[in-house]
From TrEMBL:
Gene from which this protein is expressed: ppk
Record-given protein name: Polyphosphate kinase
Organism expressing this protein natively: Ruminococcus flavefaciens 007c
Functional summary from the UniProt entry: Catalyzes the reversible transfer of the terminal phosphate of ATP to form a long-chain polyphosphate (polyP).
Biased composition, class Basic residues, residue ranges: 690-704
Enzyme class: transferase
Amino acid sequence: MEYLENRELSWLRFNKRVLEEATAPETPLLERLAFSAIYQSNLDEFFMVRVGSVTDKVKNGSKKKDKFSGMTPPQQLDAIFTAVRRLQPSVEEALRLTMKELAPYGFEHVTFERATKEEQTFLELYFKRELKPFISGIVVNDALPFPFLRNKDIYAVVQLAAKKGISIGIVPASTGSSERIIHLGKDGKRFILEEEVILRFAHLMFKNYKVMDRALIRITRSADIMVSGRGPEFRQRMEELVDKRQKLAPVRLEISDVFNRSALDYICRKLKLKNVSVFTSRIPLDLSYLYTLQEYDSDPRLHYVQRLPRKPAALSDTRTVFSQIKSKDILLSFPFESINLSFIRLLQESANDPKVTSIKITLYRLARNSKVIDALCTAAEQGKEVLVMIELRARFDEENNIEWSKQLQEAGVRVIYGPKDFKAHSKLLLITRKAQGGSFDHVTQIGTGNYNEKTASLYTDLMLLTADKDIAADAEAVFSGLVNGTFVENTNKLLVSPLALRPQVLEMMDQQIELAKNGKKGYIAAKVNSLNDPAIIEKLVEASQAGVKVELVVRGLCCLIAGVQGYTENITVRSIVGRFLEHSRIFIFGEDGPDQKIYIGSADYMSRNTIRRVEVAAPIEDSRLKKRIRDMFRVLMRDNVKARIMLSSGEYIHERRNADTPFNSQEYFYEEAYRRLEDKSSRQEQLRINRTKGSTKKTAKKTAPKAAENKQKAGTPAKRGRKKKTE
């Protein structure tokens, strides 16, 4: 269909938008380096997961066509490889341009040929003393086995002269203990990379051979592997999976330069890769070193203006967070507001509150030094019932979560792993506390982002804190299902996948369609990371055809193409890619008014979220908070700096409206967080002044009669003699 796009190609369009930030004139130079590194890191994961999956289908002979594009798996691979190759010159040019503009600040990536004679002498000596003793060269030919090459590690490969057949030398391009950036100046800004030095002197590792050609290579292995389970043995199976994944088949070979064709063919045969899976790069094969370069210069012109999460204006320092939530619902917005001064504070207070009886939470990704884990362990050690559902299958966080699960269990926490074949991706917390009269109070938290202090300062996310009893009952049902391996089918207020989210979303969309068909205004809006759920896409197309206005903010892949006449002409799709990763999910149904419904939650409009995971979304019912989210969405729709608009071709262009007045939504939200806190401080100061004035007036009123009386006494002569007795 002309209004649909292949998932993989749509994702590559998203990564192209990330790459655009590496050349954006408003992005400071050292921050541009980060976007180049992010682009590559994203692409690595894409090859490991998505290309790994499509490659497996090709190997298994699958002819099943993609539901959106109609392409078979081989056709999808060809399209992916073509799109990646087309982007590569832009990737290389972005880094070259940034390094060129950084040259006046002293930054220079030196090649061995451009190094001075003194530097070349130093590098040869450095190789012999600091590198060569810790690495070894391996000769490979038909008589010798091919070594295992680690995922994403860099190797120097050399073609060795041989009387017969092909002979290859392979050297690890890292010692594992030395610094990858070799400084050629005092401040480190003039540098060469470790692998470049190893490649230059690789011939010294094969003294009995003549080296004919040389290059650096890096392979990417598939990570498309998963296991199911939920019992006590599941953690051990996950540990085995993590180890096994490191050894899955390669799906890509990157090479630093033109290399002898016969030698390259030989390497591909040994890795069981086709030549189409080989990608040449004329910039370093691993760009993670760019993050280190950012630390070499603190010049404010090279960095973003420093922004620190603010103390949430909605919270007071004088009362516990729990008691404040009992009074009113609270909405938190990250990274603009501090997670440490809000959510972490709630957990820590609850862990030490003798009246709190239980804490239940779902965990997906955590910070390295997690205060969440510390608080949960403290609560358990103090005798509270603590239930933690930790998702061991959180991709690339499996090892971390395995270790966290062990630490939690050692502290006395009850740890479960969720449904057998479904990931639990929800961000849900339920705290129960003793109340007066023997009853209990509950606070429920539902969020769009992980309980991760690090990403909470980098990702945009929303969090609802509420004492609503119906929501607490729904949360209790979710945790009960996670314990028993069942799914919630009916709820009071929450949307809970896999059974009680998509049907409700489709029903609310149907209500807007019905309004439009009856001549009224229908409206559907959403902010999500990705959109590929076929049922939701078809319902959005139906809404557009009925005349419903549909506004979508989709950061990443979007398999629905907007603006296609006859199908999606009433749909607009925009993507915002900027300093912070857009991660919050918002669902809006209906125009402003009492009948409008707004939800926030952990689910994207993707099939994996709506029918193959446990996700939770919560209604925003407080009128103040509804207005705040409506205003947020309008701000996103005004962005003309970091927003891109989807065309009917599926391409994206920068928002051009009001170009003379740049408006960056992320900067606006930070300014708003500062302003809200300042306004609160001003109000508090004014109240203090008013109280002081009031106290002064009261004191004046009390002292005035006494002063008058004293004055009167002072002006009247004192009577002589004794006072008469009174009866």
